């Protein structure tokens, strides 16, 4: 049930990228999600993220993230107009409260809450995309070149939760085969069953930690210079994806500096499209960020193109 939240190697294009290229792509998406305030740019960025998730066959996992995000988005849209009293276009006058004063709901506050909810969904979707395309061991291997011991601790920490989830499911299946029904009885009767399950999980985790320590000792960890088990090759696909990410970042910075991609909510709503440059900058950013998606489409359908990149 929890496997969709973790990395699964499916042999897809975005999963074959070099860790630096994949991290750069996800990092640029995150920076742009935090940088943009214009709702059009946030929606365009969200569209690119969804296309990238679809390219890595992760829409089923993204739907779970979406269900989690909808509640938080709704809270942002409701709470922000009630708390923030800025904005000149008042659409509702509420009662006067002793501490907060008179409640007012402005159109600007509603639009700001809606835009921030889209940003929240984009950020959560970026984390979903990161889990789908970036292998955690590859990322930590990059850090191991600078701090091997810290990278080892991070690697063990990131692998602990998914490993314990899978191990708990295995133990639960064994207990069910032996006749233990975790759904039968009252809460008081079910607690000892779950306590026994957690006890077995704890013992298994201790045994696994001893096996990891023995494996590290057998591999002479800490006895000398660290060797590299696997080296990732930098290929043309990585250059294209990295170039598209850097181009999108550069154009986004230019748009922010020139005011093409900015948007102000208070005291009055700004224009979504301030001129032709607003549309041009948006199109360039979307096309640059869509490079991995387009390459993934060609990589799956054209063997010659796949061999070249």
UniProtKB/TrEMBL annotation:
Alphabetically ordered keywords of this record: Membrane, Transmembrane, Transmembrane helix
Stored InterPro entries: ABC/ECF_trnsptr_transmembrane
A GO cellular component annotation in the UniProt record: plasma membrane
Topology of the protein relative to the lipid bilayer: Multi-pass membrane protein
Main location: membrane
Keyword ATP-binding on entry: no
Cellular compartments annotated: Membrane
Transmembrane segments: 12-35, 42-62, 68-93, 105-133, 240-257, 277-299
Protein name: Energy-coupling factor transporter transmembrane protein EcfT
Organism: Moorella mulderi DSM 14980
Source taxonomy: Bacteria, Bacillati, Bacillota, Clostridia, Neomoorellales
Gene designation per UniProt: ecfT_4
């Amino acid at each position: 049930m929890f496997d969709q939240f973790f990395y699964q190697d499916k042999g897809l294009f975005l999963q074959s990228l070099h860790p630096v290229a994949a991290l750069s792509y996800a990092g640029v998406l995150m920076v742009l999600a935090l940088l943009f305030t214009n709702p059009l740019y946030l929606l365009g960025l969200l569209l690119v993220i969804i296309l990238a998730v679809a390219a890595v066959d992760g829409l089923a996992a993204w739907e779970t993230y979406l269900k989690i995000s909808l509640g938080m988005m709704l809270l942002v849209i409701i709470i922000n107009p009630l708390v923030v009293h800025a904005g000149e276009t008042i659409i509702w006058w509420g009662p006067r409260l002793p501490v907060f004063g008179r409640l007012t709901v402005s159109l600007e506050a509603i639009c700001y809450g809606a835009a921030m909810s889209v940003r929240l969904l984009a950020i959560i979707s970026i984390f979903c995309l990161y889990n789908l395309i970036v292998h955690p061991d590859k990322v930590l291997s990059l850090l191991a070149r600078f701090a091997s011991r810290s990278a080892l601790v991070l690697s063990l920490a990131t692998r602990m939760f998914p490993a314990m989830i899978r191990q708990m499911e295995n133990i639960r299946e064994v207990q069910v085969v032996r006749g233990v029904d975790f759904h039968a009885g009252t809460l008081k009767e079910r607690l000892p069953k779950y306590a026994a399950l957690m006890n077995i999980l704890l013992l298994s985790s201790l045994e696994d930690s001893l096996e990891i320590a023995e494996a590290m000792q057998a591999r002479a960890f800490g006895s000398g210079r660290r060797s590299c088990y696997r080296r990732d090759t930098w290929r043309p696909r990585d250059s294209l994806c990295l170039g598209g990410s850097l181009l999108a970042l550069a154009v986004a910075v230019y748009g922010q500096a020139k005011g093409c991609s900015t948007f102000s909510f208070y005291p009055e709503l700004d224009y979504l499209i301030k001129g032709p440059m607003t549309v041009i900058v948006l199109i360039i950013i979307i096309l640059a960020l869509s490079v991995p998606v387009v390459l993934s489409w060609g990589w799956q359908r054209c063997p010659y193109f796949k061999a070249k990149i």
